[in-house]
Amino acid sequence: MQIKETITGTEPITSTEAKNWLKVDFTTDDTLINMLITAVREAAELYTGLSLIAKTIEYFDEAPDSVVKLPFPEHLEITEVKINGVATAGYLKTGLTQFIVDISQIFQSSTDNDNGLYIKYKTTGTCPTGLKALMLKEIDEQYRNRGNTVEGSIVDLSANFYASAAKYCLI
């Protein structure tokens, strides 16, 4: 399985919200704060399995099961499905916020399974309020302890974040 994400929305935490939380009223650290907002959101998404920002996701699987549970809910809509490189509407979609796609009727009848399954879909980018508060706390901790942070590095979330955010995990 391969996934390509294209961000279409805005971060769930604005720089103003983060600066208010941090009690920062100057602009010299704006780039760093914005980088931390993105890094903490990305790490939180990987941990929880949620899409916390609106995205278009392209999902590809060379050897899919007949029923595929699409990752990173809250799903908004499926915009394209291709089986073996051919667009199709012959699939069955179920689920309210996490779509489950049944391709059993069309994939089994296909004779060339070399190209696999491609699904393009959109997410709403919903961030629960409690998780947003945890992310603000994590941004604060990362900002205060930034001596060892290198721009572009992956943020390691704190043990407190993992423990508190566990209730939001889908994985």
Overview of the structural elements:
By secondary structure, the chain is of the alpha+beta class. It has 2 domains: 2-52 and 126-146, no CATH class; 55-123, no CATH class. The protein has 5 helices and 8 strands. It has a 5-stranded antiparallel sheet, with no helix packed on it. Strand 6 and strand 7 (100-102) form a beta hairpin. 23% of the residues are buried.
Q: Uncertain regions: pLDDT < 50 for 5+ in a row?
A: none
- Alpha-beta classification: alpha+beta
CA-based gyration radius: 19 Å
Number of helices: 5
Strands side by side in the biggest sheet: 1-2-8-4-5
Short descriptors:
23% strand, 2 domains, elongated, alpha+beta
Give the helices and strands, then pairings:
Blueprint: E1 2-7, H1 15-22, H2 30-48, E2 55-61, E3 67-69, E4 75-83, E5 86-87, E6 92-94, E7 100-102, H3 104-107, E8 117-123, H4 129-144, H5 159-165
Antiparallel strand pairs: 1-2, 2-8, 3-7, 4-5, 4-8, 6-7
Helix pairs in contact: 1-4, 2-4
